[in-house]
């Protein structure tokens, strides 16, 4: 049985969702495992990764007892959402408003993170029942946009995705972001030399930055 409340708490407590979008199956698996070793408790395998469902199945079985939230990303329809849940995903993520995905996630008590860009889209995403609104692509908007949107829509849990770095993480949190979607800073840390301990260290660094940023340090 899925425990959505506990899974949402893990995302909220760490403030980090790792998005793995790589072109090689084995590399994606190694990056995921190394990031989990670094303390990541929530990660998304995008459906663009070769054998994404197989990776999700492997990770969900391996880390079930540790309570790691294994999610599927780039979910564009209910059929893919259902397949991801059957593979073991306890979180579904889409780049845009996808009512069918949200409905499927809610039916099986998986966390739903649905993409939006404008205030209208953000409100429609909330009304559709998403747990978290993914602001995407965030790098074209910046932290000030989150602060502006949160003024009239203060109840919105926003997760910006795109261009998030340790250097600007605090700005996003200060602007009102509930959590941050992280990608290449962690996932590509080992690409030059294949040393996956660098992925682990990058994960530790980002989690440290997130914790300090939210404490106001």
UniProtKB/TrEMBL annotation:
Alphabetized InterPro entries for the sequence: Aldlse_KDPG_KHG (IPR000887), Aldolase_TIM (IPR013785), KDPG/KHG_AS_2 (IPR031338)
Record has Lyase as a keyword: yes
Keywords associated with the record: Carbohydrate metabolism, Lyase
Coiled-coil blocks: none
CDD domains: KDPG_aldolase
Pfam families, per the entry: Aldolase
Protein name as it appears in the record: Uncharacterized protein
Source species taxonomy: Bacteria, Bacillati, Bacillota, Clostridia, Eubacteriales
């Amino acid at each position: 049985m899925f425990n959505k409340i506990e899974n949402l708490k893990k995302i909220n407590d760490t403030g980090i969702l790792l998005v793995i979008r790589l072109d090689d199956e084995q590399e994606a698996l190694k990056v995921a495992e190394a990031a989990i070793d670094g303390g990541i408790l929530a990660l998304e395998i995008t459906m663009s990764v070769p054998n994404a469902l197989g990776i999700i199945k492997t990770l969900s079985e391996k880390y079930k007892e540790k309570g790691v939230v294994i999610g599927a990303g780039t979910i564009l329809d209910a059929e893919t959402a259902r397949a991801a849940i059957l593979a073991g995903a306890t979180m579904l993520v889409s780049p845009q408003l996808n009512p069918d995905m949200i409905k499927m996630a809610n039916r099986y008590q998986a966390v739903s993170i649905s993409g939006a860009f404008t205030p209208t889209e953000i409100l429609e995403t909330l009304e559709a029942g998403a747990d978290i609104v993914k602001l995407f692509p965030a790098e074209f908007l910046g932290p000030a946009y989150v602060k502006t949107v949160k003024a009239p829509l203060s109840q919105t849990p926003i997760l910006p995705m795109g261009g998030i770095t340790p250097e600007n993480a605090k700005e996003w949190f200060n602007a009102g972001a509930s959590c941050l979607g992280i990608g290449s800073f962690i996932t590509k840390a080992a690409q030059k030399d294949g040393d996956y301990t660098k992925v682990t260290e990058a994960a530790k660094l980002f989690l440290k930055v997130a914790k300090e940023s939210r404490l106001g340090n």
